[in-house]
Amino acid sequence: MQRQELTSQIFKKRSYLCVGLDTDLRKIPHHLSGASADPVFAFNKAIIDATKDLCVAYKINTAFYESRGLRGWESLQRTIDYIPETHFRIADAKRGDIGNTSSQYAAAFFEAMPFDALTVAPYMGKDSVSPFLAYPGKWAIVLGLTSNEGSRDFQFFGAEEPLYSRVITRTMEWGSPDNLMFVVGATRDEQLLHIRELAPKHFLLVPGVGAQGGDLAKISRLGLNEEGGLLVNASRAILYADNGVAFAERAREVAAGYQAEMAVYLRESATGKQSR
Amino acid sequence: MQRQELTSQIFKKRSYLCVGLDTDLRKIPHHLSGASADPVFAFNKAIIDATKDLCVAYKINTAFYESRGLRGWESLQRTIDYIPETHFRIADAKRGDIGNTSSQYAAAFFEAMPFDALTVAPYMGKDSVSPFLAYPGKWAIVLGLTSNEGSRDFQFFGAEEPLYSRVITRTMEWGSPDNLMFVVGATRDEQLLHIRELAPKHFLLVPGVGAQGGDLAKISRLGLNEEGGLLVNASRAILYADNGVAFAERAREVAAGYQAEMAVYLRESATGKQSR
């Protein structure tokens, strides 16, 4: 998906919500577990049907599928095939390896499966990222600053500038706002401001709203730009809003709550920019 | 596999060779492509049969399987099920994510599949590594310093010490020589010496011998310790030694060449240590 199309969807739906399909077989409602040959897909299908008019993106955390072996990959394939092409489809897989291996990962997610974007770990540098940038209309979403406790271990390493800042500025040389986004943890306000200064035009993927404790108002105020420029992800808060037969309706209500907030922040952002 | 068992295999076979199964469907001999329902597994099976008495480990680069979608995962599952339990089985998958997601990857490689070890990208810190260390007899092999061109981009970042050094010393606090190894690129002699000083007891996984240009004599002189302490990987140099019907015999010859060299270096290392 091209940037223009993503931006267009954001303003049309007045939403920059990304629904994270971190679907855990042990957590889905009991009535689904026995009733379907592929309960994970049955669950995802219901969540997608219930949320697709409220979000612009879906993010599939591949670990939750890989952990189930071959059957998990079947659920993953069915899920990605079911997500409408109007939605930005993210494989949250944190891949990254030497060039010839990253090319294989690109083939996995951009050819064997129809993802629009893949999250990428930056440790191995340019040749580990570049293969993902070689596909027209496809995106690398590189880890900048994450929201987990361990992010303190290495991402702030460095004297004059922290590693996360170096990663972002260096990586920007390899791609453009048309094929490169950054992952920015939602719990770091000062850093989100800093990253928006470093990369004013790039989309930022912000996980961690809801269960991980991020504040949507702050994130939006600091991160929105003229083209939206944000994808804010919620996973557990939506998926597991309810554990009964009404799980999809409750998921929709939670997603609708985020969308309604986002509509306000998008309007405020546009108004603020006009008045400057 | 426990460390004692790995060391025992190394001295018994006089080999610390790891054969990398980066099997590319486009590169395997033509006579296999049509003759089998799963030519990648047929190829791997022949390579394993031809090399298993000469090596102590197999490393499966998952990207080459993921790129083929569900069929690739089937080849991967068949291959890991075929590797003898006497061999140290490495998933070279460069995973790493927030704690609850890394736990899912651990389940994928240590429960759904019987790998002994997984390569792990360190960028997200402690909670991204720790879940792999929680399985008795299983290992995390954390990226220290890689041999690709892009390793210069971030792994040497830092003023007083380079990032790779910080990664190694910090990660050592989370595990022990019984469950933690490091990936060290074979093309960096000075750094290999430095890393051996930082982590005298840990096993080092050194990829890049053969096609990637590492020098086995130097690596062995700098890296061997009392327990062996090295796994040196060769992939393309062995897998694609010959493209005809004799591919497995030629692969065996190349592996035998490495093993014969390794027997010499192991003896020299033991003698050198006695004379000190």
Describe this structure in words.
Two copies of one chain form a homodimer. With 276 residues, chain A is of the alpha/beta class. Chain A has a single domain (3-275), classed as Alpha-Beta Barrel (TIM Barrel), CATH 3.20.20.70. Chain A is 48% helix and 15% strand. The first copy, chain A, contains 13 helices and eight strands. An eight-stranded parallel barrel of chain A has the order 1-2-3-4-5-6-7-8, surrounded by six helices. In chain A, helix 10 links the parallel strand 6 and strand 7 (204-206). In chain A, helix 3 (39-51) crosses helix 13, helix 6 (99-112) runs parallel beside helix 7 and helix 11 packs parallel to helix 13 (247-275). The longest helix of chain A is centred in the last third of the chain and has 29 residues, at 247-275. Chain A is globular. The two termini of chain A are 31 Å apart. The model of chain A has no long low-confidence stretch (mean pLDDT 94). The interface between A and B is large, with 56 and 56 residues.
Strand line-up in the sheet with most strands of chain A: 1-2-3-4-5-6-7-8
Structural class of chain A: alpha/beta
Poorly predicted regions of chain A: none
Average of pLDDT of chain A:
94
- CATH hierarchy, class of chain A: Alpha Beta
Approximately how much beta-strand content do the residues of chain A carry? 15-25%
Rough outline of chain A: globular
How many E strands of chain A?
Answer: 8
Task: Write out the CATH superfamily name of chain A.
Answer: Aldolase class I
Distance between the termini of chain A: 31 Å
Q: Quaternary state, please?
A: homodimer
Number of domains of chain A: 1
Q: List the helices and strands of chain A in order.
A: HEHHEHHEHEHEHHEHEHEHH
What Rg of chain A do the Cα atoms give?
18 Å
Q: What is the share of helical residues of chain A?
A: 40-55%
CATH topology term of chain A:
TIM Barrel
Largest interface in this structure: A-B, 56 and 56 residues
Query: In the CATH hierarchy, what is the architecture of chain A at level 2?
Result: Alpha-Beta Barrel
